[in-house]
Specification:
Distance between the termini: 8 Å
Structural class: alpha+beta
Radius of gyration: 24 Å
CATH class of the largest domain: Alpha Beta
Shape: globular
CATH superfamily of the largest domain: ATPase, nucleotide binding domain
Number of helices: 15
CATH topology of the largest domain: Nucleotidyltransferase, domain 5
CATH architecture of the largest domain: 2-Layer Sandwich
Strand content: 15-25%
């Protein structure tokens, strides 16, 4: 048996063909089972034992500095505090930094990940513990320049996710699954150009082998989506396949349908997708509540806070100081720096994006930052925030039309972002006269992978 795996930026899924029918893998979830799970992992830092913590001379110096700063702030506010309370707060800050940045010798990534939690439960565990590491969308990191240790950790995370998929599928299908066809974008997100694609595939291949797969192949995701469209088409026809996911946008020109095998003529892709709209919506609709465009806080601080997938940027944001930022923004920024709150904000942004795809307005409470704080966003604000991505999408589609040389009769649209009406409108504006076929937004690619794997 060969398993089709959609290792996604936002969500992951898998399926196999059983007795001629596509059977999705059902993953354990908080309320029963789910056909996909959020590609998120929470794992505690290896240095979490309080007995391991001891103040060094350098730490003691930092404690004294924090105490002095706290004393000055308290006096300026007209609310003097006891020295013991100031010191307790300072030690707590130093201990938190120690737990975040220290690494026990010689702990391996495998040991670090033994108690990992995946999916939506990872978010809940992180919120509950308020310590440790939350890694969201590890797929988005595969093509970036990575320190050897960071590469080892990312490979370990991907391996544990793929092992979770393999073992769950093996139990469900009562078969020890060792073969997999894994979807891949045309172009991974990358900071090192084309070398990023090769690196991403190397990491995924290594992770899959570590997860217990002996036979591994990759298939471009728009080609998998073409296979899904082909299976539901009785008549042979030409189609442009548009797959818009969380991290990438992929397009294929294919001949599908009928009794012949599907034929993919060419594929295109950009490393942009739904997470770019999330970032834009966060900056435009949420970050003004923290002073963006109002205070003199550098603009990149807000980008760092919004990009929860980027661990170095998250660490940079937590290390900034906001002394002297005018009220109420200083207190809000400090609250946003507390463990888990950037992830909570990101989840609020995601909810808003999804809700505004079907509703004219959406309100979100940010009580975790400040009692009574919230935002009320109109759908027009979402479309405006999505504008830069939509312009890139249109430019890619125009390139596709020019390369094909004529307009196709059918556009097959799939991927999570295909649910959004403003995305569908921009796609079809590039193909006037074509017939739109809406595929399964969540499972179009994984169904195609399962069919191709069989």
């Amino acid at each position: 048996m060969r398993l089709g795996i959609d290792f996604g930026t936002s969500n992951s899924a898998a399926a196999a063909v059983i007795d001629g029918e596509v059977a999705p893998v059902r993953f354990p979830a908080a309320h029963g089972e789910a056909l996909q799970f959020r590609t998120t992992v929470y794992f505690p830092e290896v240095m979490r034992d309080p007995n391991d913590f001891a103040l060094t001379p350098a730490m003691e110096h930092e404690v004294e500095r924090l105490v002095d700063a706290g004393r000055r702030d308290a006096l300026a506010a007209g609310r003097p505090r006891e020295e013991a309370a100031l010191r307790r707060d300072a030690v707590r800050v130093v201990r938190r930094d120690w737990m975040e940045h220290s690494v026990r010798e010689p702990a391996s990534s495998a040991a670090l990940l033994q108690n990992a939690v995946y999916g939506d439960e990872a978010l809940e565990a992180y919120f509950l513990e308020n310590e440790g590491n939350l890694v969201q969308s590890p797929k988005s990191m595969l093509g970036y320049s990575l320190h050897p240790r960071a590469r080892q950790t990312i490979t370990g995370i991907a391996s544990h996710i793929l092992e979770h998929i393999r073992l769950t599928a093996s139990r469900q299908f009562d078969h020890n699954i060792r073969r997999a066809l894994i979807g891949r974008p045309v172009r991974f997100r990358s900071s090192i150009g084309e070398a990023g694609n090769a690196q991403a595939l190397e990491i995924l291949g290594e992770a899959a082998r570590d997860a217990g797969f002996d036979d591994i192949d990759f298939l471009e995701e728009p080609s998998a989506a073409a296979m899904h469209h082909h299976a539901g088409s009785a008549q042979r026809h030409e189609a442009v396949i548009v797959d818009i996911g969380g991290g990438t946008t992929d397009i294929a020109h294919a001949s599908v349908g009928g009794d012949s095998v599907p034929q993919v003529h060419r594929a295109w892709g950009i490393a942009r997708g739904g997470t770019d709209i999330d970032l834009a919506l966060s900056l435009a609709g949420f970050m003004p509540l923290f002073g963006r465009g109002i205070t003199r806080v550098p603009a990149h601080h807000y980008v760092e806070a919004a990009m929860v997938q980027d661990l170095p940027r998250q660490r940079d944001f937590r290390q900034h100081r906001y002394d002297g930022v005018p009220d109420p923004f200083e207190a809000r920024l400090r609250a946003l720096q507390e463990a888990g709150n950037t992830a909570r904000l990101y989840r609020a942004v995601e909810r808003s994006k999804i809700a505004l795809s079907d509703a004219p307005r959406h309100a979100e409470s940010l009580d975790f930052i400040e009692a009574g704080l919230g935002t009320d966003i109109a759908d027009a604000a979402l479309v405006a925030a999505a504008g830069p991505y939509l312009d890139e999408l249109e430019a890619l589609l125009r390139e596709v039309v020019a390369d094909i040389g004529h307009a196709p009769g059918v556009v097959f649209l799939t991927g999570g972002m295909s649910r959004a009406g403003y995305v569908r409108e921009r796609v079809m504006a590039c193909f006037p006269g074509a017939r739109l076929v809406q595929g399964d937004p969540s499972f179009g690619v994984v169904r195609g992978l399962a069919l191709a794997a069989a």
